[in-house]
Specification:
By secondary structure, the chain is mainly α. It has 15 helices and two strands. The longest helix has 30 residues. It starts with a helix and ends with a helix.
């Protein structure tokens, strides 16, 4: 099994790859722009950086088949920078003021510069993919990766549209709708990361498909775990306060509870949701309602089910390097704590 030191090496190598992409792009007149990029990415000094789960999944997928990770680093850099472009925009759209225990980018440099920085990160992520040719991958394989990347980014935008639309319209949507939303917004990127690692390592479409299904199930489990933390989590674990109820976020525990509520409970939950700034007592009442109506238990059950499905798909892929398989299993079980 790969050790924590080995995994730290994968993360460090990915960060060096990202820094190289940034350094090749910046010049004297644009240094402040790239300072914003580094700030958001946590690449300035010893800043908080996040877990880097998405590039890790891609690198380990590649390594589990190919035996090493170095040649896949440009793809890992592209995935992480692409994920972070969406986070910059997400913070603006959600009015989120914190990211990884410090002020969100837009609160420091303003909305206009933050939007531009997000666009810059998106462009840099695509430029990172071109580096795969330097690692010896042929044009056809790089083109396939670029198509996968663009399809993934489109799914992210579609999911974000659905998320914003529901928050702006006074209506409750279904559990089925929510799974579609998080499939596009969250699962697609993790599935794309795992699939990209496999595409770079093998021509076996059966293996590639298994890795994509692994990533998809993991992405759903990851989001459902986050839904639980958004209501019942600790700030030290998530990097932000558990304020989903106060902010009227329509996550799975809430949607499930509303779908299964009787008339009185549904009316009360709806009334709290219509309160622009609910009090602490109202938030606590809503949380108690959600829990009593089964929202917490159902979400935990679904998170575990998708986590276990992800591991089953990974095992069914028949990877050669068992120690990498065990490392991926450890990451999955460590991140999905539902």
């Amino acid at each position: 099994m790969l050790t924590a030191i080995d995994l730290d090496r994968l993360i460090a190598d990915t960060e060096q790859e990202m820094l190289g992409v940034i350094e090749r792009a910046e010049d004297e007149r644009t240094r402040e722009l790239y300072a914003m990029v580094r700030y958001h990415m946590g690449l300035d000094s010893d800043a908080p950086r996040g877990k880097r789960i998405r590039p890790l999944i891609g690198l380990l997928a590649y390594q589990s088949i190919a035996g090493s990770h170095a040649k896949a680093l440009p793809g890992a850099a592209a995935v992480e920078m692409g994920h972070n472009f969406s986070l910059v925009h997400d913070d603006i759209e959600d009015n989120g003021t914190e990211r990884r225990h410090r002020p969100a980018l837009w609160t420091v440099w303003g909305t206009a510069q933050a939007i531009n920085t997000g666009d810059t990160l998106f462009t840099l992520s695509r430029m990172a993919l071109y580096r795969l040719r330097d690692e010896g991958f042929d044009d056809a394989r790089v083109l396939r990766l670029m198509r996968l990347y663009d399809e993934t980014c489109l799914a992210l935008c579609e999911g974000q549209f659905m998320d914003i639309w529901t928050s702006e319209h006074d209506e409750w949507h279904s559990v089925d709708y929510y799974f579609d939303l998080i499939g596009r917004k969250t699962a697609s990127l993790i599935a794309g990361s795992a699939e990209a690692g496999a595409v770079l390592a093998t021509d076996d479409e059966t293996v590639i498909g298994a890795y994509r299904r692994f990533g998809w199930a993991l992405g759903l489990a990851f989001q459902l775990n986050d839904d639980l933390l958004g209501i019942w989590g600790e700030q030290t674990e998530t990097g932000k306060e558990p304020t989903d109820v106060a902010r009227h976020k329509m996550t799975l525990p809430v949607i499930y509870a509303f779908e299964h509520a009787g008339a009185d409970d549904r009316a009360r939950l709806g009334a709290i949701w219509q309160t622009p700034e609910p009090t602490a007592d109202q938030v606590a009442e809503a949380v108690a309602l959600i829990e009593r109506l089964g929202g917490r238990d159902y979400t935990r059950e679904q998170a575990r089910e998708h986590r276990d499905r992800a591991l089953a798909e990974l095992e069914a892929a028949g990877v050669v390097h068992g120690e990498v398989l065990e490392s991926i299993r450890g990451i999955v079980l460590g991140v999905i704590k539902a």
